[in-house]
């Protein structure tokens, strides 16, 4: 080679532009490594299991988190929809001025309604059996302001509720007692009339004027609503009320409204909110939700470990190819990026597929439950055990994004070590015995 030719070659090497990161040839080689060949079937099987593991892990996390969120929202809506956000009870003196106090409470900003009520426990008896019940006396106008009752009357009507002696009961109670609209049930209270022989239980028959269905089995089988004046007479309350339930615009702000409610009552009262009355229940739900998230994250972690093992075997199998690429001018960074693309592709596609699968299942979860129940001839999600009559699912965008980012990060981290090993491979050692 002459001096001129040597100078031209050197000038060509200097003028050649370096290959940019993640160039087309890196993606092409990574794609070929992902495709199965006869000699690499076992490696492709490991990649397939890694893909399936990440897909199922992400889908399971999304589904479980959505169901847990749905449980919490449904239970919170049912519990607060019938029990109120705040409870005002009298101290020292009986609550005889409940209408005036309720009117003052409704004047507080952010308060939607204030409902006076009488509450007592009793035994209800029907043709098919007996049940323990929570009897609550309210005005008809106040009962109509509770959407869970007013909007879910399945038979009968609340018209003329205050004028008559009719009562409203839940659908499950009606079913268990064997009664329907127009039938009579007997309510038995241990606090009856005082006689020389002691206190005798009070028994009185009431016609069923309305049957409602909230959708929470515990409430549908427990609550009995009767007119406030009739409840006062039945429970010997004269002109008194048990307390006043307050409904507010935002249930999460009840803590800062306590002082305003106490001042508006203008009498000694004891105010409690829904968080204090249900602290154990909702704390247990939160703990269960967090633990389930941690446990199910292990599925994604195991799938990421499969990516590591698959890539390490791929690096070992492709040692000769890596050496040839290095001798042809491929840099260590280029080799590392090729195997990063190979492993990250499995994680990214698996994560996206898991997201789609989880979304489809969440949107059709009640239909899937009914289909599985029909195929297995069993009752999945028994309302008597899980309180709700349908399986709820509520997808939270923030949580879903967290799950997707976690899966992508784990998949990317799993590719770092195998890719680093591939980049450090010495081409001389790899080709020594070829």
Summary tags:
434 residues, 6-stranded mixed barrel, 2 domains, single chain, alpha+beta, disordered N terminus
Structure description:
- This protein has 434 residues and is α+β, with helices and mostly antiparallel strands.
- It folds into two domains: 20-74 and 282-431, no CATH class; 93-267, no CATH class.
- The protein is built from 18 helices and twelve strands.
- Strands 2-3-10-5-9-6 form a six-stranded mixed β-barrel. It has a two-stranded antiparallel sheet with strand order 7-8.
- The protein is elongated.
- One of its GO terms (cellular component) is plasma membrane protein complex.
- This is Lipoprotein-releasing system permease protein.
- It is found in: Cell membrane.
Set down the secondary structure blueprint.
Elements: H1 3-15, H2 24-34, H3 41-83, E1 86-90, H4 98-106, E2 111-126, E3 129-138, H5 140-143, H6 147-150, E4 153-156, E5 167-170, H7 171-177, E6 184-189, E7 194-195, E8 198-199, E9 202-212, H8 217-220, E10 223-227, H9 228-234, E11 243-248, H10 254-265, E12 269-273, H11 274-277, H12 279-317, H13 319-327, H14 332-363, H15 365-376, H16 383-386, H17 397-423, H18 427-431
Parallel strand pairs: 3-10, 5-9
Antiparallel strand pairs: 1-11, 1-12, 2-3, 2-6, 2-11, 4-9, 5-10, 6-9, 7-8
Helix pairs in contact: 2-14, 3-12, 3-14, 3-17, 12-14, 12-17, 14-17
Protein name: Lipoprotein-releasing system permease protein
Transmembrane segments: 42-68, 291-315, 335-360, 401-420
Main location: membrane
